[in-house]
Structure to design on (305 residues):
């Protein structure tokens, strides 16, 4: 089944080139099916890139999904055309009376600030609270994972001596969970962050379950509320060239940028990336949609609570 996307979203043409079946809203209206409503709060600077990365993963399901994009009123993005934001994004205030089957909250380039110093902290914590009663299951990614754990459960973050940057093996701690159905014992996950969570803080909270971790990159995935919340410290959604673009961007402006670990073939930036995480990323998102959204959400979306 296809993804249902807003008319003229740039990701549509990009994904059709990859033979991914998508349809715009106009065509989808002719189908007598209730699609699952998924909302993405996109906090990343390059909105179109993140949209495409997430839509690509969400396409790997037989269910029809209606994708909406949410923006903050208290923050104006600098790297995305105003016309794009006006055409494809709605503010939280415009959406707060709606309910959604699933939600994804992305990372943001603010992790080295204290949470309360973030200009949109008040608004995003309002969204965190809202999601608990208006969304069946929410994925929090990278900074959003840290922020969500801090706001909802009091889990602190800690600065790293050097940036966690590369592709790291992750160990599954609860292999019988549906979110890991079809997974191998170990999977790879991209990370790009300056802060971390500590295992002891997670395990000390009875409401949280640590379900995947790494000897190298630490806490990986935390589950809460029986799967209504997942907190992912890395970036399973990253495209093959994302870390390469980040590395070359930073190398042009700083001299202390390390080569991302386990990323380039032979660890040589002159070689192309060695992609090791995409299969499990697709499986993770498909499992989330199937087992924690589709099978848990009520048919009448207004019954979500």
């Amino acid at each position: 089944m296809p993804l249902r996307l807003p008319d003229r979203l740039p990701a549509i043409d990009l994904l059709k080139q990859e033979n991914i079946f998508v349809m715009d809203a106009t065509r989808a209206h002719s189908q007598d099916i209730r699609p699952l409503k998924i909302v993405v709060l996109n906090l990343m600077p390059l909105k179109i890139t993140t949209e495409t990365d997430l839509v690509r993963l969400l396409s790997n399901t037989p269910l029809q999904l209606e994708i909406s994009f949410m923006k903050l009123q208290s923050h104006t993005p600098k790297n995305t055309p105003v016309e794009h934001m006006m055409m494809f994004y709605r503010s939280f205030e415009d959406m707060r009376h709606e309910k959604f089957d699933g939600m994804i909250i992305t990372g943001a380039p603010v992790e080295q600030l204290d949470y309360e110093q973030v200009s949109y902290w008040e608004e995003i914590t309002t969204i965190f609270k809202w999601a608990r009663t208006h969304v069946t299951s929410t994925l929090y990614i990278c900074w959003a994972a840290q922020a969500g754990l801090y706001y909802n459960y009091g889990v602190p973050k800690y600065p790293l001596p050097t940036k966690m940057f590369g592709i790291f093996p992750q160990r599954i701690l609860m292999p019988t969970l549906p979110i890991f159905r079809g997974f191998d014992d170990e999977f790879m996950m991209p990370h790009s962050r300056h802060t971390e969570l500590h295992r002891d803080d997670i395990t000390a909270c009875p409401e949280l379950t640590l379900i995947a971790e790494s000897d190298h990159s630490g806490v990986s995935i935390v589950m809460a509320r029986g799967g209504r919340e997942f907190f992912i410290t890395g970036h399973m959604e990253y495209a093959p060239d994302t870390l390469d673009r980040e590395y070359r961007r930073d190398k042009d402006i700083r001299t202390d940028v390390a080569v991302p670990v386990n990323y380039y073939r032979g660890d040589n930036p002159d070689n192309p990336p060695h992609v090791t995480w995409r299969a499990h990323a697709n499986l993770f998102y498909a499992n989330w949609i199937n087992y924690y959204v589709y099978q848990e959400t009520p048919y009448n979306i207004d019954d979500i609570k």
Remarks:
- The mean pLDDT is 90.
- Residues 278-294 form the longest helix (17 residues).
- The chain has ten helices and twelve strands.
